[in-house]
Amino acid sequence: MQTWTSQAPIYQQLADRLADRLLDGEPDEGEAMPSVRTLASDYVLNPLTVSRALQTLVDEGVLETRRGVGMYVQPGARLRLRLAEREKFLKEEWPAIVEKLRRLGIKAHELNWEI
Fold first, then answer.
1. Domains plus CATH for the chain?
2. Of 12, 39, 43, 33, whose CA–CA distance to 77 is shortest?
3. What is the pTM of this model?
4. Per-residue pLDDT tens digits of the chain, which is 115 residues long
5. Contact of 69 with 10, CB cutoff 8 Å
6. Are 63 and 33 within 8 A, CB to CB?
7. Where does the record place the HTH gntR-type domain (predicted)?
């Protein structure tokens, strides 16, 4: 069962989860995305919510709509997603992590990057 937060609209949370799957290569570039019905069933969501999430990924240039056959992962989508996620992490998440490390007195040499 999927859990959704109140931090962002559900369609955006789903778009983020689908983007994470795409980063992991599921499905691969050039391959079809699962259908709206399949995703709605998998995530227990209204098909309109799923459609809106997929449209978000189309708007970001990650997916393309092929009339009558579905949505497909664009060539270069994984690289675009990785670069966007990397930038978001470095601008938004990393400063908060650094601040927490500083507050807790954790030094760089104490961190294990191989976990």
1. 10-110 (1.10.10.10)
2. 33
3. 0.82
4. 578 888 899 999 999 999 999 999 999 999 999 999 999 999 999 999 999 999 999 999 999 999 999 999 999 999 999 999 999 999 999 999 999 999 999 998 899 888 7
5. no
6. yes
7. 8-76
